[in-house]
């Protein structure tokens, strides 16, 4: 118990001394404090125009974000053997002298993001940073990266270089054997060449989304056997080579959404046995080849929404295909017998929803889950066009009773009217179709025969009975 108490006292004294040492040499306009990871100096939003002349010797983290720094000279930070993290984001840096980071032998994380005037880096800028693991160059408006800029960083694991002005994947990435994450989105990259990613054997995540990529060359990812997440969404891809993703056996996520693809080829995903998430949404896909997804036995979600698909055959998934979720909305589906399997699968699995039919007209607007498919006498599927027209449609609205009676009266009047003599009928044209009842019935003079009078009374009585019968049927 006494030993434990002495240990706590010693630790307390050590912590107090470390705190005192950290705050004793704290730069003006900065705040300093000691934490679990060592001494920390915060100089963010301090209005600094130059790097402070002195920092605590034991400092582990320096934050100089959102100041007005424009230039870093030789050994800009002196000698800080314990510094592991340095952040210079949101300044006005336009030039960094080669050797500016000398004297920082243990630096593991360097953040230079959002220095829009930087534009250019010397090939020897990071020469002294042999232990650097994370480098942030985002939104620096860099036009290029010198070929040897990153060659001095053998420990580099993560590179963030998005929101720059590259036109191709920086050649400086080639050969970075320990790089695991590369963020190159929104950088105006137009192509992924066959040699762009050469030697990146430990790369696990690559983001190329929201660029201007029109072409992915065959074999571009052949050295990236450890890749798990590949984002190529929101580019200009209209086609892919047959073996575009060959060798990516560990790939879990592939995002090709928001491109201009018109079809899905059978060869694209043939080797992606561990793929779990596949995004093909927001393209112009109108055709999926048979067997296109047949090897994706572990797929958890497939996004095909927002395309031009009218049909999707079960042959695209066979054989033995299992799928967690299937997203198919915003497509002009034709709900005929070719989609009966989808309706049945939806009912059995419940992992598909919102598949509105665009055609045929009898089921347009219905979800496919509401479409009925019939069977012929020999067991074949019958397209739902006529079947659903009679089942789902409420049918024509009943006509008003007055209209029905009027039509019945007109027809009955024509049947009861006396025929004109042959020679008179031959010289008359057909009267108007919608003639009134008074025009259809024969006129009777005061001196007419009793036979004509009886005939007229009988006709009127029969007409009245017919009118009441029609009214009764329409009411009940």
TrEMBL record:
UniProt GO BP: visual perception
Pfam family, one: LRR_8
Keyword Ubl conjugation attached: no
Keyword Transmembrane helix: no
Domain LRRCT: 331-382
Alphabetical list of PANTHER family matching this protein: ANTIGEN BSP, PUTATIVE-RELATED, INSULIN LIKE GROWTH FACTOR BINDING PROTEIN ACID LABILE SUBUNIT
The protein's name: Nyctalopin
